[in-house]
Amino acid sequence: MKRRRLRTVKTAHIMITVENDQSPIRASRLGFSSFPTFPSLSDKVIPSQFPAMAEASRIFRSTLFPTLSLQLSKPCYKSHVYPSLSLKKAPRPIQCSVSTSETKSTSSNATQEVPWGCDIDSLENAEALQKWLSDSGLPPQKMAIDKVAVGERGLVALKNIRKGEKLLFVPPSLFITADSEWSSPEAGQVLKQYSVPDWPLLATYLISEASSQESSRWCNYISALPRQPYSLLYWTRAELDRYLEASQIRRRAIERVTDVIGTYNDLRLRIFSKYPDIFPEEVFNMETFRWSFGILFSRLVRLPSMDGKVALVPWADMLNHSCEVETFLDYDKSSQGVVFTTDRAYQPGEQVFISYGKKSNGELLLSYGFVPKEGTNPSDSVELPLSLKKSDKCYKEKLEALRKHGLSASQCYPIQITGWPLELMAYAYLAVSPPSMSKQFDEIAAAASNKSTIKKDLRYPDIEEKALQFILDSCESSISKYSKFLQASGSMDLDVTSPKQLNRRVFLKQLAVDLCTSEQRILFRAQYILRRRLRDMRSGELRALRIFDGLRNIFK
């Protein structure tokens, strides 16, 4: 398997930034949520027109399982436990009762490929796809599918393309949405009868159409989709534990796998088992759902100009992501098609890119299965875990204040190369605050929550040094975990003898090394800034003490 190097919100959160810094570390470049999964650390507001490739995870969490609320009580900055699938016919809320042991057993074996689609770098069905699209209403294009250095398959320019030129013009008749017509009308009627939300409905729709083969209108499109999308859904639990132990993405990947399994189990229990002739298990099973959700996570787009409709857009989804472009997909009402406007010129033979949104390297790996080259992603970030100490005399009072605002004793906050959120600093203030500040615990906990609208730019000069030291200690603890993995990675998998298995291990390990290197780099940067601030604070305090002692001697 070839390595896929590149396929290529700010919310109301105020950021602490580092200005005029001459640190030796240079600045760097999807996504639930990244999938935006936590707030962007830049001071730009993400345009609402960014594609749902950048928002797929958030949509998934907010529509797929409506009965479970998003909780920040988990050890993360924004919980990535998706709500549970709710079906209208069920008189009670349906829970995704997937135990850890069930998840392990389900994901411990190597996954099998589905019987449709093609190899991820194959062009065997590209010509048939382009012909079908053209016959189905796609206007003449200035791009064609070809093998590329970045992304394995992509759209390359056939002619000179100007900066500011609109491309694609994919008509709505070629969108796959929750309203698309089923080749098996009975299957569609059953799912509509149970009011299945868009994401699981689309996942089931893809499997149904794929199994219909040539009788499906989408046969040529599905034949050009990868049999095994690049996605952490295809990593086994052992591989996640082995290669992503140091990164918080491991936890999020396990949650995503668990939720996909839970969604399938809910559908199987509530619907498929009641209609086995319409939904036979040999077609609608865990492997086919892993495939369909992998396709949705990596290809579904949200179109703001169509009231936020989510859709698969054939042809447009062949565009790869680049960190160097800021153009995105949306529906153009004047031309009545999905378009994007180039932000640079392209020569014939050059690959044409779009942006999947402002996503960290971890989010891009989670949904799309690639990690950008180190230092090329300005939106890259790493989640820093922080925890209250149980030995704290005010542990119970602080925990109560955190829980009141949807937080827990352990939280993760994003750090970017340019700074960290004020919520992180508020959490650190709370962690080190003495009993004498107990009346302020609630105010500080509220500032530590991204759900609160309270003023977050709190300053407590008396405990600021302790708060910064608390963050530094957590930062250095995380750095040591990354260092341990990176040092051990060279000797991993030396006992593997199967060439196929070795190739897979080498591929996954390299992705993990690239991710951990980029995340550790951000932590090193934060460590440098924190050490410098603490040094300046302590040297300033020392000067003040010397001045005080001098004045005292004079008065004596």
Mind explaining what this structure looks like?
Strand 2 (143-148) and strand 3 form a beta hairpin. Helix content is 40%, strand content 10%. Mean pLDDT is 81; it is low at 1-109. It has 15 helices and 13 strands. It is elongated. The strands form six sheets. A three-stranded antiparallel beta sheet has the order 4-9-8, with no helix packed on it. Strands 1-13 form a two-stranded antiparallel sheet. The protein has a two-stranded antiparallel sheet with strand order 2-3.
How would you describe this structure in keywords?
mainly alpha, single chain, 13 strands, 556 residues, two-stranded antiparallel ribbon
Q: What percentage of the residues does DSSP assign to strands (E)?
A: 5-15%
Number of helices in the DSSP assignment? 15
Order of helices and strands: EHHHEEEHHHHHHEEEEEEHEHEEHHHH
Structural Rg:
25 Å
For the secondary structure, the number of strands is: 13
Portion of residues in helices?
A: 25-40%
Overall pLDDT level: 81
Please write out the topology.
Blueprint: E1 15-17, H1 56-63, H2 100-107, H3 126-135, E2 143-148, E3 152-157, E4 166-170, H4 185-193, H5 198-212, H6 219-223, H7 237-243, H8 249-270, H9 286-299, E5 301-303, E6 309-311, E7 320-321, E8 330-332, E9 337-341, E10 353-354, H10 361-368, E11 381-387, H11 395-404, E12 410-416, E13 419-421, H12 422-432, H13 441-448, H14 461-489, H15 499-555
Parallel strand pairs: 7-10
Antiparallel strand pairs: 1-13, 2-3, 4-9, 5-6, 8-9, 11-12
Helix pairs in contact: 2-8, 5-9, 8-9, 11-13, 12-13, 12-14, 14-15
